[in-house]
Amino acid sequence: MHRTGELYGQFETLEQQREASSLGMWVFLITEVMFFGGVFLTYTINRAIYPAAFGIGSNTLDLRLGGFNTAVLIASSFTMAMAVWASQTGKKKLIPLFLTLTLVLGSVFLGVKVVEYAQKFEHHLVPGRSFQIDAHIENQAQKQELEAAFAKDPDLNAHAQLYFSLYFGMTGLHALHMLIGAGLLLWLIRESLRGRFTPQYNTPVEVVGLYWHFVDIVWIYLFPLLYLIDRHK
Amino acid sequence: MSEHIVSPKIYAGIFTTLMVFTGVTVYAAYVNLHKWNIVIALGIATFKATLVILYFMHARYSPRRTQLVIIAGVFWLAILLALTLSDYLTRVTIHG
Fold first, then answer.
1. CA distances, B74 to each of A46, A106, A108, B77 (Å)
2. Do residues A205 and A84 lie in contact, with contact meaning Cβ atoms separated by under 8 Å?
3. Whole-angstrom Cα distance, residue B71 to residue A147?
4. Which chain A residues contact residue B20 at CB under 8 A?
């Protein structure tokens, strides 16, 4: 694999070749939209059936960490967009710089996610035998709210586990996509240091950029859906 | 026709808008708007996603054929969500 932007036989122009590459990436991303769409659908149906359990589960999440991570991910999308710009305008030294910034921000996001997951283990909020929705609630108002919720729904503990199964499933799938993105970034950084990307040939930067922004969009929906239910209570 | 290069100024503007609306969505979540909380939250998320698609992902400057693929994808997602939810959300067991 040493493509540097020569024209392949099946294309008329370099322009057409480049458009075909990004079109191919978009088609892949549409399959990802359908994949995540099914997951979001599962979430929506379960939340509609058990609104109280989902609200209580959501309120146990750390909004500061979630909000911070949202900002970090949006910033990483910005630096990724700037890497694409640097490759299009031939600023060869800026390409690895912006790519590295993107990788660092992505790693910060994953690091915060590790902290959040660890808290869930400590607070008995990982679905399974030791799951207990009220294990870590000390606030008196929240305790009363929980008691009222238990009175209405004796299976609240089971239904809150549904919320946390979806929380781990959705954020886990998202984090897996981030890990793949980080691997792609490492490869792009190496290639950009070799000076492979020019205004004539920057398709890999553009296409990985599309992927990275897609992963950002998934989080843009995950954040309000997982962290912001019933916060006004 | 050569490829369209989006300027850093536009990227910075989009970045700032995304950050501001992240703040707005957190603020809105603390106000009790009853059923409207989820509508506002998803509305803001969709607005942010649209900005990312149009500018960061260059959809606004892409060829028509790419735009058609994106619109078709969103349309198919709408079918998935609308038809499934029109079943589940109208079942007696959920709201009864």
1. 23, 26, 30, 5
2. yes
3. 47
4. none
pLDDT, tens digit, for every residue of A138-162?
A: 788 888 888 999 999 999 999 999 9
**Interface ipTM:** 0.94
Q: How far is B85 from chain A (nearest CA, A)?
A: 7
Provide the 10 A C-beta neighbour count for residue A122.
10
Residue of chain A whose alpha carbon sits nearest to that of B4:
A88
CA distance A57 to A51: 10
Q: Which residues of B touch A42 (CB under 8 A)?
A: none
- Tens of pLDDT, residue by residue over A43-70, are 999 999 999 999 999 999 999 999 999 9
Q: Find the angle CA(B8)-CA(B9)-CA(B14) to the nearest 5 degrees.
A: 95
| 8 Å CB contact of A89 and B19 | no
Q: Please indicate whether, in this complex, the C-beta atoms of B5 and A88 are within 8 angstroms of each other.
A: yes
